[in-house]
Write a structure and sequence with these properties.
- This protein is about 40% helix and about 20% strand.
- It is of the alpha/beta class.
- The chain has one domain: Rossmann fold (3-Layer(aba) Sandwich), CATH 3.40.50.150.
- Strand 2, helix 4 (about 90-95) and strand 3 form a beta-alpha-beta unit.
- It is globular.
């Protein structure tokens, strides 16, 4: 066995021992190609909206309404929706993007497990240009997506602590929101709260006796907490479909 091959196998073994694996560039390119052809969340949601199986939607963490957002691609004038966005800059864009839809309410607040106020962390817009250059000219609207109750979440995504700002925001529970707007016939709940998703969905299921389709971002959740949530949802006959970073939770009779 050559020296280079021995060295490669040793490195591969070390990397494997800490939970990673080496993947060649060809495989990565093929994976990206396949991902572009794969099923997307809007491929499921759009037909259900068109068939009027989805009439009422709540989206928590709506950001500007367009960036990395499947719901915007599925809209029609008959859809009733409540879109929640706590960061003011993103909220103003959200209202603008949805202004022509009369049945959609945009709310500048946050959903939490109790009513009151809470500190939320976000990237200061002063430094958007810095990160646009750092991350190869990305759309800076992506930075608002990182907003979180957990400051460490932003740091883990490469944001410098000195570039992070915080503010107190108003928070309400799902129960209060749904009672106020009479959304007890909710068809679809979308949650994208950068690591707080499981907490909110657990609270939703525990405090309300309604079982809509649920779509949430799973990638920031711990294995044990998401495992417990899925077991809970299974008791209500939910099935699951992983599409990229999102997990679609549905009842068979609802979709088919």
């Amino acid at each position: 066995m050559s020296h280079d091959l021995k060295k490669f196998k040793f490195i591969k073994k070390i990397i494997g021992s800490i939970g990673y694996k080496l993947v060649d560039k060809k495989s990565l390119k093929t994976e990206r190609f396949i991902d572009n052809l794969s099923l997307k969340v809007e491929d499921i949601i759009q037909p259900l909206i068109n068939k009027k199986k989805i009439n009422k939607v709540i989206q928590v963490g709506a950001n500007d309404g367009k960036s990395d957002d499947f719901l915007y691609k599925c809209l029609n004038d008959n859809l009733n929706a409540i879109l929640i966005e706590p960061i003011n800059d993103a909220f103003l864009k959200l209202k603008k993007n949805y202004e022509k839809y009369s049945k959609i309410n945009c709310l500048n607040l946050a959903i939490d497990i109790q009513n009151g106020s809470k500190e939320i962390f976000s990237v200061s817009s002063t430094y958007f240009d810095y990160y646009e250059k750092k991350f190869n000219n990305i759309n800076v609207d992506w930075l608002n997506v990182l907003s979180s109750f957990n400051k460490k979440h932003l740091i883990n995504h490469g944001i410098k602590e000195k570039h992070i700002i915080s503010k107190e925001i108003s928070c309400i529970t799902f129960s209060k929101l749904i009672d106020y707007y009479d959304y007890y016939d909710l068809d679809l709940l979308i949650v994208d709260t950068e690591g707080y998703d499981v907490n909110l969905i657990n609270n939703f299921v525990d405090t309300l006796n309604i079982r809509p389709m649920i779509v949430f971002e799973w990638i920031h959740a711990e294995k044990n907490e998401i495992g417990l949530l899925l077991k809970k949802l299974e008791k209500f006959n939910y099935k699951f479909l992983k599409i990229g970073r999102d997990l679609v939770c549905f009842k068979k009779e609802f979709v088919f």
